[in-house]
Amino acid sequence: MSKTKTQFVCSNCGYISPTYLGRCPNCGEWNTFTEETVTKDSGTNAKSTRVSLTGSRVEPQLINEVDAQDAPRYQIQSAELNRVLGGGIVPGSLVLIGGDPGIGKSTLLLQVSGQLATLGKRVLYVTGEESADQVKMRADRLQIAVNDRLYVFPETDMTAVRDAIANLKPDVVIVDSVQTMQEGDVDSAIGSVSQVRGVTTDLMNIAKTNNITVFIVGHVTKGGAIAGPKTLEHMVDTVLYFEGDKHHSYRLLRAVKNRFGSTNELGIFEMADGGLQEVQNPSEIFLEERLKNATGSAIVVAMEGTRPILVELQALITPSVFGNAQRTATGVDRNRISLIMAVLEKRAGLMLQNQDAYVKAAGGVKLNEPAIDLAMAVSIASSYENISTNPRECYVGELGLTGEVRRVDRMEQRIREAAKLGFDRIVVPQHSLEGLDVPDGIEVIGVTTLKEALKLAIPK
């Protein structure tokens, strides 16, 4: 016997309600509830035995008896993607890639498919949004080498996908996208929360049971998060976000979750006529259009995962026309701007309470680490005083509320990156100088307070 009931699920966050609601009490979105029919088995036979991913019974065992081995990785030609994934593609992993429409997700995965096929791996590219002809046209445009290892399967039915995987026995499966797949056992519309959860669960079982690497593409909401329930990101092994403005050529691939490597790694690509090309030295890109003797500009050496990147922070300080001063941010946290301006006013004597502030991280990159505080304070003070900073000087450090400059990590890597790009001087926290191996050609100056840093950066 089975019981059938109706429930309403929020398509934005997955909240379940027994009745229809106009506004979701969990995420606050309006008109996001959809009706779904749920069938549950009743009786003593409804319980299933827990088995392992290989099909055998799970038994308790001592942790020192567990044979832990490092999984071999597929090293593809894309060094940027290898680094973001933690050193390569792990067999049996489930990777979720999200991004705005037209950002280049399908292009990236088709290029990865071609690279895997040239390594001798059998790849199944499942597309639910395009026909086989459209995929072939893109492959020709990207100049992907044609061989007998890359298969294209335009299908949305998960039953047919499972049969194709069982027949081909591929090493890698790419599903574009998970919102277009349909699980026959789930009685709801394609793209609904239940469908997305069911399809992802099915793909996870396929990946773990057969040691097949599965890449799935996920659509994003207007807020930039991957559409569907938040549990979708918990189910997969790795979550990658493909960011950037589709009207510009540069794309940022960021890892926000990775069970096989470090998080917050960053890969940078450039969209060209022949597809996505790797950017070997992103610091030069972020600095190539910097104006000389421009006020409100300061260079920071930020860390994106294990990679140091030099980014220009720009600030524009203007008198406020209305009563309340504005704080506008692009690429940095708006609340951090208010905090740093308060420290500048209290500890450095700058009257900023009646000034509008517009702060931007040039190049479209997003910075959120504490080490950018000092460079942000220097750029704001430079614009306020209308005095340009030294174009061959950069700044690294965290600011405290009492005006002290606090130490940050990976200082040697930051200094070497600045020296490699020809900077003459870098201002760092005094406590970070202990035990540093400073390369030749760059002067490292340690400061303890914000006032000391401003005297060096903005001489009056």
TrEMBL record:
Region: Lon-protease-like, residue numbers: 356-460
Signal sequence residues: none
Domain RecA family profile: 70-220
Binding positions (ATP): 99-106
Pfam name, any one: Zn_ribbon_LapB
Chain location of the short sequence motif RadA KNRFG motif per the record: 257-261
Presence of the UniProt keyword Mitochondrion in the record: no
Superkingdom: Bacteria
The keyword Transmembrane helix is annotated on this UniProt entry: no
PANTHER family per record: DNA REPAIR PROTEIN RADA, DNA REPAIR PROTEIN RADA-LIKE PROTEIN
Cited function: Plays a role in repairing double-strand DNA breaks, probably involving stabilizing or processing branched DNA or blocked replication forks.
Family stated for the protein in its record: Belongs to the RecA family. RadA subfamily.
Domain text: The middle region has homology to RecA with ATPase motifs including the RadA KNRFG motif, while the C-terminus is homologous to Lon protease.
Name the UniProt record assigns to this protein: DNA repair protein RadA
Organism lineage string: Bacteria, Bacillati, Bacillota, Bacilli, Lactobacillales
Gene transcribed to yield this protein: radA
